[in-house]
From TrEMBL:
Taxonomic path: Bacteria, Bacillati, Actinomycetota, Actinomycetes, Pseudonocardiales
Keywords, sorted A to Z: Membrane, Transmembrane, Transmembrane helix
Tagged with keyword Transmembrane helix: yes
Organism of derivation: Saccharopolyspora hirsuta
Keyword Manganese: no
Name this protein carries in UniProt: Bax inhibitor-1/YccA family protein
Top-level taxon in the UniProt lineage: Bacteria
Record-linked InterPro entries: BaxI_1-like (IPR010539)
Transmembrane stretches, start-end: 51-71, 77-96, 103-124, 130-152, 164-188, 200-219, 239-262
Amino acid sequence: MRTTSNPAFRNLPTTGGYANFNYGQGQPASPFGEATVAPPQTSRPMTIDDVVTKTAITLGLAVITGTLTYLVGPPAVALALPAAIIGLVISLVLIFKKKVSPGLVIAYSAVEGVFLGGISYLFASLVPNLGAGIILQAIAGTIGVFAAMLVVYKTGAIRVTPKLTKWIIGAAAGVAVLMLVNLIASFFTAGGLGLRDGGPIAIIFSLVCIGIAAFSFLLDFDAADQAIKGGVDAKFSWYIAFGLMTTLVWLYLEILRLLYYFNRE
């Protein structure tokens, strides 16, 4: 399996022992001339249906909790920060935990929904001329980018090669470092490096982030594809759902921020 820029996929095994999907067929004969019998299996290999189902569950839960949080009104903004902290802690546990934990993935999705609901309400309140319209635009943009990159991947218009993988990982790491430096700089100077102040540099930076997030989907799709082809255990589809969720959250936030830059008074 190729490396991906998404840390959520670090626990995906390279193979699950299901690569042939047919035990007892094509197995080397034993020294006594008998066919080798495969050991009994207590689970099954991952399928595309597993990935779609788990991803739908996580996204659906995030949409529900996000919508409910948004409908709370002004108090929703106060919920964003604690939800972000809790979500970060859960994500770190998921990334470094060795065993698959569907419960934590579900909890992460629910908390991220609260975070997104609070942030969405904040941006909507900052753009009174659009209100909830900016949220709908950001959702539409996120879905559009996701669908476009899925088509790009499935048609092979852009192939995931080791060179492309290294480029995307390097770009994502560079953006992360710049965000951290900008945050630290903002403690000492107003606006920090200007990456989030709404000016020309901030707009360009958001566009770059959107581009990197979009290309990161190619690595996510490839990681999922390789896992399915490698016969990885079906339970690891929760990791894939978690990984896709993190990329979608990042993309949505960047699109929402960019729309805010263009529509603020």
